[in-house]
Every structure is written in structure tokens, then in C-alpha cells.
Design a protein that fits this description.
- Belongs to the methyltransferase superfamily. RsmH family.
- It catalyses: cytidine(1402) in 16S rRNA + S-adenosyl-L-methionine = N(4)-methylcytidine(1402) in 16S rRNA + S-adenosyl-L-homocysteine + H(+).
- Its main location: cytoplasm.
- It holds the Pfam family Methyltransf_5.
- With 319 residues, this protein is an alpha/beta fold.
- The chain folds into two domains: 14-116 and 226-304, Vaccinia Virus protein VP39 (Rossmann fold, 3-Layer(aba) Sandwich), CATH 3.40.50; 121-224, DNA polymerase, domain 1.
- The chain is 42% helix and 11% strand.
- The protein has helices spanning 14-24, 42-50, 63-72, 92-97, 115-119, 145-151, 154-164, 170-183, 189-199, 213-224, 226-240, 254-269, 285-290; strands at residues 32-35, 55-60, 80-84, 106-110, 245-251, 274-275, 298-304.
- Strands 3-2-1-4-5-7-6 form a seven-stranded mixed sheet, with helices on both faces.
- Helix 3 links the parallel strand 2 and strand 3.
- Helix 7 packs across helix 10 (213-224), helix 8 (170-183) packs across helix 9 and helix 11 (226-240) packs parallel to helix 12 (254-269).
- The radius of gyration is 20 Å and the shape is elongated.
């Protein structure tokens, strides 16, 4: 029984993900899966349960999350190969160096941030607690959110908040940040959340969401260079997945989804794969009611095998 003090972990769109894999694979086959964003290990646990003769490569860039996922999957440890890495590092040579010689039959990416990161990582991902503004998903260093807030020039901050956060109050928020940092450094998540809350008039706060949500999202994307890693990583994974295999990607942001949509479309045009989701699969009403955080999730799936027909796969969906 899970510790009642721990937040409930939801595996977003898990029914759809398992259904897509079962539509292609016999559940009793000896398959190799790869979870490129292990997180809490929820999706990996379902794959190990549903495909009892399969093995799974468990990947996460955060050593803390990888350890938590391994603990959750301890009953299946003989079938799990843990690797601390960013999914954008993965190619056949990299996997070979870690003892994985066969290409994965099924690959999954869940690009959402975990509940643990939001509530317990202590890295300033959330505005609920007053934590140091860090936001790094990896333990290997790099620039922090505090560095971004306190050193980036006005133009760069504006670009981040407007493009990555789609924040309509960008101009006033950046002005307030520049004014504040003339007097003192902004070092904690609570300080930044309060600043943004004061800038945006209460009547314009998004219903059911903290007014600083978009700013925090934009900062996390910048600090971890998430869009760049998606562009690089998904290209590599399209090449890595075995013939006849599936690549499934869950995104939570329109910029992420656009990258995946275009990469999948272009790859399918080459005749080496078929799109199984011309429009993304979305969570059901029941799932969004049970787990409101899933409401913005989009799942795209590509099957790496020759299409059964030559009809054009184009049917552009709305972002």
C-alpha cells in the first residue's frame, strides 16, 4: 500500500498507450520497451505488467527520479535496465555502451513534469512553497532559474515568457522583474510568484490556476532547454525504434506538440512509418475529472513499418 502522505501518481493516458501497444504487439512476445522519461515509473509499471515476457530500458535525466522509479519497479528488477541520461542522448551506440544491443520495439516519452518535482523536489518548480529558484531537472549542472531571472536582459526574458509561456502580461512582468532586481536578487519561488501575482490584476487570473503558472512553465522550459531536447531526441528515437515498432509521445504544451507533430509527419512522408494518430489522442472526460493535470495532454503515435497504402497521411489538426 502506498504511503498516504505521498501524492497520488497518475499515469496520463495509460489506457490509450497500452491499447496502441496491444494493437501491434502480442502481449506474450519477448519485447524490449524503452521509457525515455521514467518519472515515477507509472507507465513502466503498466508495461511490465501487461507484457510479462518483456524487458524495459528505464531512462531519466534526474538521478532522484530514476531511483524512485527503480524502487517502484523493484518487483520487476530482473527485467529493468536503468540508465541515467536525457532521452536526447539515446541512439544505438549509446545503448550498446550500456549493454543494450537490440533496438527497442516500443518507446514512450511523457514530457510532463512529475508531481514529485512540483511538490517535493525543493527546486522551485512550484509557487506553492518558497524554495530556491533552481528548476533544473538534471543533477549535472547548467544554468538555474535564479540565473535566468536575475541576469537575462529584458529582450531575452520577454521572449521566454511570451513564446514559451504564451503570457499576455509579459511586458509588465518583465518590467517588474527588472525593477525588483535593481534593488535585490530574486532567489526564491515564492518571491517570484508574489511578484507576478501583483502585476496581473486579479480579474485576469486564469480560473483554477495560479497567475504565475505560465511564467514558471516558461522558466522551466528555458532552464532545461526542453524544446531543443525534444527536437533532437525525437529525431533520434524515430531512427532507434525497431522496424514494426511504435514510438508514443505525450506532450502538454502547444510548442512541444507542434514539434512532435511535424517530426512524425515528415518521417511518415518518407514511407518508413505510418501515423496512428492523424489527430492527437486526448484524455477522456473521466480521466480529466480524476486527474485535472491531464487536461492539456496530447498523445501522438507513429508505427515504424511500411504503410499499407499510398494515400496521403495529411490531415492537419488544430493546435
Amino acid at each position: 500500500m502506498e504511503n498516504e502522505l505521498e501524492p497520488v501518481h497518475y499515469s496520463v493516458l495509460y489506457r490509450e498507450i497500452i491499447s496502441f501497444f496491444l494493437s501491434v504487439f502480442d502481449k506474450d512476445r519477448e519485447l524490449l520497451f524503452l521509457d525515455g522519461t521514467a518519472g515515477e515509473g507509472g507507465h513502466s509499471l503498466l508495461l511490465l505488467e501487461q507484457f510479462p515476457n518483456s524487458k524495459l530500458v528505464l531512462v531519466d535525466r534526474d538521478s532522484v527520479m530514476l531511483s524512485r522509479a527503480q524502487t517502484r519497479l523493484s518487483a520487476y528488477s530482473s527485467r529493468v535496465i536503468p540508465i541515467e541520461a536525457n532521452f536526447s542522448d539515446l541512439d544505438s551506440e549509446f545503448l550498446n555502451s550500456h549493454g543494450v544491443s537490440n533496438p527497442p520495439d516500443g518507446i514512450l516519452l511523457d514530457l510532463g513534469i512529475s508531481t514529485f518535482h512540483l511538490l517535493h523536489a525543493g527546486r522551485g518548480f512550484s509557487f506553492r512553497e518558497n524554495e530556491p529558484l533552481d528548476m533544473r531537472l538534471s543533477s549535472s549542472g547548467g544554468i538555474s532559474a535564479e540565473d535566468v531571472i536575475n541576469t537575462y536582459p529584458e529582450k531575452a526574458l520577454s521572449k521566454i515568457f511570451y513564446e514559451y509561456g504564451e503570457e499576455r502580461w509579459t511586458k509588465k512582468i518583465v518590467e517588474a522583474i527588472l525593477e525588483r532586481r535593481r534593488h535585490s536578487r530574486i532567489g526564491y519561488s515564492g518571491d517570484l510568484a508574489q511578484l507576478v501575482s501583483r502585476v496581473i490584476p486579479r480579474k485576469f487570473w486564469p480560473p483554477g490556476r495560479h497567475p504565475a503558472t505560465r511564467v514558471f512553465q516558461a522558466l522551466r522550459i528555458e532552464v532545461n532547454q526542453e524544446l531543443l531536447h525534444i527536437e533532437i531526441g525525437v529525431k533520434k528515437l524515430l531512427d532507434l525504434v525497431a522496424k514494426g515498432g511504435l514510438l508514443q509521445v505525450i506532450s502538454f504544451h502547444s510548442l512541444e506538440d507542434r514539434i512532435i507533430k511535424n517530426l512524425f509527419r515528415d518521417y511518415a512522408r518518407g514511407g518508413e512509418a505510418k501515423l496512428l494518430t492523424k489527430k492527437p489522442a486526448l484524455p477522456s472526460d473521466a480521466e480529466t475529472k480524476e486527474n485535472p493535470a491531464s487536461r492539456s495532454a496530447k498523445l501522438r503515435v507513429i508505427h515504424k513499418s511500411l504503410p499499407t497504402d499510398t494515400e496521403e497521411e495529411e490531415e492537419d489538426d488544430e493546435e
